[in-house]
Amino acid sequence: MDDTNAGSAGQTGATGIALLSRLVLIGPPGSGKGTQGQVLAKELGIPHVATGDLIREIVEAGGEDAERFKAIMATGVFVPDEDVVAIVDKRLSKPDAARGYLLDGFPRSLEQARLFAATRAGATLQAAIALEIPVELLVERLSGRLTCLGCGASYHEKYRPPVKKTGVCDNCGGALVRRVDDEPVAIRQRLQTYDEKTRPLIEFYEDQECLSRIDASGTPADVHDRLQALLGVTNDK
Ligand code: AP5
Ligand code: MG
């Protein structure tokens, strides 16, 4: 673990861990990893690397792994570790990730965390941020989510509807659709998989002294403010 610029990243609710640029967001389905990750990465000038989005792109492209990944995702269980680690490795080797990365949805098991730590990018991870939220809020968030087919932006029927036109993305004009794994059975499976496989990562990163926790309830703006305070990001950055 590289602690260059690590500041007070190990302290819960600490402020001012400025200049961090190799970050991981950990949180259950619906905790806001995508919503917050997209905005924060832009502010930090680093790519938002979401494994769910990368796997969905592979499915859309229809290559040799497409059908296999599609079937796995629809049920809410994990794509095999070797596949995901290879996907992340490839993405982080692109030039835009040279300055850093904001990972969303990876690592999401102890095995993935160990495999990632053995890679060049993973060896320099600076902070893991856990988004904490009561489970009852998650189902409502996920069942109302709408995702843009064009740019992947995340909306919500009630909490974050598009402002320009119903069913159309404000950013790119793409169509807003419901994800196949946002059906009740798949949501339950994803929450269960999170508890079994991903939650232990919080202790793992706590032991590595690079974990911070954020209250992810409240409005997207509230959560964003907490993340900005934690990371020392200002709006005019
Ligand atoms: P992935 O796409 O990563 O899904 P997930 O982890 O289940 O998380 P979500 O994207 O559903 O939630 P989010 O936290 O991003 O919430 P969002 O911001 O959208 O992974 C999908 C699948 O891919 C996995 O099940 C697995 O099969 C596979 N996969 C991915 N990574 C893998 C890996 N590493 N290993 C193996 N397999 C992998 O917000 C949700 C909704 O709430 C939105 O509608 C949003 O507008 C709304 N919302 C957000 N914040 C707020 C707020 N503060 N108040 C009100 N509403 C809010
Ligand atoms: Mg997401």
Q: How are the SSEs placed, and which strands pair?
A:
Layout: E1 22-26, H1 33-44, E2 48-50, H2 51-61, H3 66-75, H4 81-92, E3 101-104, H5 110-117, E4 127-132, H6 135-143, E5 145-148, E6 154-156, E7 176-177, H7 184-198, H8 200-207, E8 211-215, H9 220-231
Parallel strand pairs: 1-3, 1-4, 2-3, 4-8
Antiparallel strand pairs: 5-6, 5-7
Magnesium ion is lined by residues 33-34, 50, 52.
Q: If you had to describe this structure to a student in words, what would you say it looks like?
A:
This protein is α/β, with parallel strands linked by helices. 41% of the residues lie in helices and 14% in strands. It is built from 9 helices and 8 strands. It has a 5-stranded parallel β-sheet, sandwiched between helices. Strands 6-5-7 form a 3-stranded antiparallel β-sheet. A hairpin with a 5-residue loop joins strand 5 and strand 6. The structure holds BIS(adenosine)-5'-pentaphosphate and magnesium ion. BIS(adenosine)-5'-pentaphosphate (AP5) binds at residues 27, 29-35, 50-52, 55, 72-73, 76, 78-79, 84, 105-106, 108, 112, 141-142, 144-145, 154-156, 159-160, 181, 190, 218-220, 223.
Write a concise keyword list for the protein shown above.
237 residues; alpha/beta; Rossmann fold; five-stranded parallel beta sheet; three-stranded antiparallel beta sheet; 8 strands; globular; disordered N terminus; binds BIS(adenosine)-5'-pentaphosphate; binds magnesium ion
